[in-house]
Amino acid sequence: MALHKLLVDDFDIETYSLLAIHCTLEDYRIAYLLNKQLQISLQRKQQDIDVQYTASSFPIYEWKDKNQQTIWNLVSNVCKKEEDSMASSGSLFETQNKILRTHNLIPEYKKVNYLLKINNDGNFINERAIIHKIQEMPQVAAVFSINVSQLKSKDNLIFN
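Structure tokens predicted for IPExxxVDY family protein (160 residues):
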């Protein structure tokens, strides 16, 4: 009887590019400007990305380019959530203190505001040209490529 082995490492090939974008704009505004600059059509998805049992929620925009067979996703890397304080004040009366807690989709890049993920399924994508076009936008402070193979939290980038 023949023994068949399935190597799981065969499926761990990154077929997407990941760009980090530094800017202070709201998510809908940066999506609009990227659509205009790159001639794409990012649209807000109905459901946000929930991480750690809805501890944080990240807005996501998507565009499926049928000509190039690519899927573009713009997702916020920062979620600020107001939570109740658990600290005891030591007084007779209860005081409700609120804390503004910051969560990151990719904790290794806490300073990055947005992530642009381009699923290319093995097709060629001119990453340099995309970075150059985004850098031309005056609202963007910086943009750079992220090496996905070195990310510890790359499971957070599975959107579908």
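The CA atoms of residues 81 and 101 lie 5 Å apart.
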